[in-house]
Write a structure and sequence with these properties.
Length: 199
């Protein structure tokens, strides 16, 4: 049974999707710790309601690696094996990534490598792409850059707004993030260069 640590900054809807899948027995893992860098993050409240160990480590004004060392100390104390970013609005330091090589997952609302960073859905509409979607990837030292585990394509409709496209993509985020975590927890993944191969 893998121990999962969740990092979040906001509503935590992907955290809830992962939690639901674990509680249903679909993923051989349990959530050992939820950390938010925002004290009023709704996701932190959801974690407390579900009786997870949930803490806030405020990040304002703290240098990146110094902050990450605080987070990793808590993750190690909770014996976390795998870290899942669920709307965590900070870039991890190289030092953090080195503590969990190929054991940090993130979900992003575009078909990477297209539209990394913030406002991916807005940029998809501005570019006039016909297909967007979501990506689960391993985290490396660069923003939205690591090897890709799973993707799901979502058509962009002519009357889409940033809000409607985001909402449709989010539905699929809630499906593929648990699928990706299941693959990792069952050790059915190997990485060759940038390619992720699953069994």
């Amino acid at each position: 049974m893998k121990q999962v640590g969740i990092l979040l900054s906001g509503r935590g809807s992907n955290f809830l999707a992962l939690s639901d899948a674990m509680e249903a027995g679909d993923i051989p893992a349990r959530i050992a710790l939820v950390v938010s860098n925002k004290p009023n993050a709704p996701g932190l409240k959801h974690a407390e309601e579900r009786n997870y160990k949930a803490i806030c480590i405020p990040s304002a004004g703290i240098e990146r690696e110094a902050y990450d060392r605080q987070v990793v100390k808590e993750m190690q104390a909770a014996q976390v094996d795998i870290v899942c970013l669920a709307g965590f609005m900070r870039l991890l330091s190289t030092w953090f990534v080195q503590q969990y090589p190929l054991r940090i997952l993130n979900i992003h609302p575009s078909l990477l490598p297209a539209f990394p960073g913030l406002h991916a859905q807005r940029e998809a509409l501005e570019w006039g792409v016909k297909v967007s979607g979501c990506t689960v990837h391993f985290v490396d030292q660069e923003l939205d850059h690591g090897p890709i585990l799973l993707q799901h394509a979502v058509p962009v409709l002519d009357d889409d707004t940033e809000e409607t496209l985001s909402a449709r993509i989010l539905q699929h985020e809630h499906q593929i993030y648990p699928e990706a975590l299941k693959l990792v927890c069952e050790e059915r993944v190997r990485v060759e260069g940038r390619r992720v191969l699953t069994s």
